[in-house]
Specification:
The chain is mostly helical. The chain is built from eight helices and no strands.
């Protein structure tokens, strides 16, 4: 008796389900059968998922020539920035502004270090690097604020260069390159803020204030050397 009741319940549920699905499809039972087949119901075959290597091949792009060229060029750009800072250091040193000279020299070392970091990253990823001839940096200025204006322009241009690399990497899906550049972007924000602040103080500063600033930058460079 229980078996008869259970069988009747199953038939009732099946009939209700069929009618409900038929209504959802506008009364077209062919759509229901098609849907059942697509999901492997009533003998339909289940579509196989693509292999992992197929997904990677679809989503992974190779580095573009634009990105490779920009990375290669940036190595030389960082070396040129190092020379520019060193030239500024020489100018200040020759005018007995040893604090600013020391600060510029530290920045020169840092820029050279950036060039080495980018070169190492390129080599590890088998990116071609062609060093360019380094243009002679500017060496003559009339006033200290002219020197700082040159350095600020240098940092602003370097920011644009690094953003161009990140943009090129984004276009070809090289997100590892973008991640590598993140610390450089942070440093550029800090560098522009620092140099811009110094320039604002140097402009129109009295001789006493200028020497005080020179002393402060010298102490800052000294502390940096001890780290």
């Amino acid at each position: 008796m229980k078996l008869v009741i259970l069988a009747a319940c199953v038939q009732t549920v099946a009939a209700f389900s069929g009618n409900y699905l038929s209504q959802l499809n506008g009364g077209n039972t062919a759509n229901v059968a098609s849907a059942n087949g697509a999901f492997g119901v009533n003998g339909g075959s289940v579509a196989s998922a693509p292999a992992p290597e197929q997904v990677m091949a679809t989503n992974q792009n190779g580095p573009s020539q634009e990105m490779l060229d920009l990375i290669s060029k940036q190595v030389s750009v960082e070396l040129m920035a190092s020379q520019a800072y060193m030239s500024a250091s020489i100018w200040f040193r020759s005018r007995n502004m040893d604090g600013m000279a020391a600060w510029m020299l530290d920045e020169s070392d840092e820029e050279r270090g950036h060039g080495k970091e980018i070169l190492e990253f390129a080599m590890k990823n088998h990116y071609p690097v062609q060093l360019e001839a380094l243009a002679l940096p500017r060496s003559e200025w009339q006033t200290p604020d002219e020197v700082w204006e040159t350095i600020l322009s240098l940092e602003q241009q370097n920011t644009k260069n690094l953003l161009a690399i990140a943009h090129a990497a984004d276009k070809c899906g090289q997100y590892g390159v973008k991640a590598f550049l993140d610390p450089f972007h942070v440093e550029q924000i800090e560098a522009e803020d620092k140099v811009g602040g110094i320039l604002a103080k140097v402009r129109g500063a009295s001789i006493n204030l200028l020497w005080e600033l020179d002393y402060m930058l010298g102490k800052e460079a000294e502390e940096e050397d001890h780290h």
